[in-house]
Amino acid sequence: MVEIRSNAASVEFRGVTKIYGRGKTPAVDNVSLHIEAGTLVTLLGPSGCGKTTTLRMIAGLELPTDGTILIGGKDVTRLPATDRDVSMVFQSYALFPHMTVMENVEYGLKFSGLSKARAAEKARAGLELVGLTGFGDRLPSQLSGGQQQRVAVARALVLEPQVLLFDEPLSNLDAKLRRHVRGEIRDIQQKLGLTVVYVTHDQEEALAVSDRIVVMSNARIAQEGTPRDLYDWPANAFVADFVGEANLFDCEIVSVDGGQASVRLGPVSLALPARELGPGAAKLAVRPDRLVLNAQGVANTLPGTVRKVTYVGRHLELAIETGVGNVFLVSRDVDAPIAENDAIGVGFPQRGPVLIPA
User: Fold this and answer.
1) Which pTM does this prediction carry?
2) Across the strands, what pairs with 320?
3) CB of 266 closer than 8 Å to CB of 304
């Protein structure tokens, strides 16, 4: 039985800029990053941040205005897409509707010099890898959206590329199917040790599948790190608010001693890692699920008034008005007797609040 192999290679950008037309704002602005071979790295950000342009430059579908791109240590900056060992899975699947599943998966192998028998054997191995054994004679129109996406993945995998690219691959699927297919993509990537660059605007999707995440904003990298790094230690307000939800408060760093900051937020005093910030104005980022509900009068509690309570099954979502701004809080205690206009206290645990620059 033929197996699908990994030819995983690293990807490196050195000061890459892409400008469409003269005098235009850069779509990608002086981006430098290194993607290790065998890892899944997600480019995450809102529409227009530069993530898809970055992906297309890896593929060779766009050439940079300035800078250098290397794949496996080889300079590919000016190489066209046809001369790069890269495969891409598109948002629209891009399957040929008149071809069977088997013919779709075999299509790229026709140009690789393999015999017809060898190509068919390899295509069957690709379909087995994505859980579609026995589907080879069907047309794409006879498949579900999730199955069509898996055919597109198999078609890319059988080419054994150095880098596999995904451009918003799950955006056409419903929420439950997205969770299932993203798990399959991650399992295949880890099983084969593939280098995968994955573009999405879905924060939960990025957190679930990635070894590392590159958050992009306004054509630049806002922060790069592991999913836990970005969620627990956002570098700035944009990352805090984009990677998951966050409450952002204006606060004051009263003093710093040994890397620990004494922080004042209204009537609340906190001791937090200073993160190289000095005394003065700063912001405090706190995830909604990292705040706790306390009775009024408890030490280090922000007094507030409940303005809205929303039951969403697994938790309650609370909108609370306080003297330092509105607070969004998630409580797992779905049976708590909380009603609108109740006086309530918002507590800040030791782990959770994070200082970011003002």
Assistant:
1) 0.90
2) 306, 327
3) no
